[in-house]
Amino acid sequence: MVRNPILPGVKAAWPICLGYIPIGLAFGVLAQKAGMTWFQIVLMSSIVFAGSSQFIAVSMLASGSAALAVIMTAFFVNLRHLLMSSSLATLLHNEHRGKLSIFAYGVTDESFAINYTRLLAGDWDLNRSLVLNHTANACWILSTVAGGFFGHLIPAHSLGIDYALIAMFICLLVFQLTSRLIVLTAVIAGMLSVVLALWIPGNSYIVLASVIAATIGLGIGRLSRTFHET
After folding, report:
1. What are phi and psi of 37, to 5 degrees?
2. How many Å is the maximal CA-CA distance in the chain?
3. Quick check: is 1 in a domain?
């Protein structure tokens, strides 16, 4: 295993950074138009560091929502991080609590996808994970600040901003398709999302489809192991 974790961590972070740049620019533009200063954008991106909840928070602030409502909404949107961190904890035994605290700060959907897959494969460690997380973090903060400063110069719908988030998650999904069971689970989740979208308003159908598909995948995996054992 390579001793220096910087180069492997930075290389692993590049797909995340490619997605963060246009999304961060878009967020910076929206935040600036909502009345936030560049310093406030830096604080939000540094403290919250969660794209979806940041977009929601800015939208709520722009509409005049109370601070408590914004905070509670961001809290519930980010509750999924509890599950992601719990999954990562099973792969990071006997690590220093200080390092784990710094690592936990940088856990996002995207960094979780890459770190979990590589830690599970056994060719990754906490130091590389830390580099990956904070490379992505720095990229996100710089992108959001740039959007706040120069967003007025960027024409609407340019740079693929509308498609950037979708493209990033497709890329991360492809990286995780390492077995037939994972492929099957992904297909089930996609099909359920389409069906549930016809019946459930808003975006909650995505979470519901993911939970159902993950449960089905877990059940199939257990049945398969039981069958092979017998």
Report:
1. -85, 170
2. 65
3. no
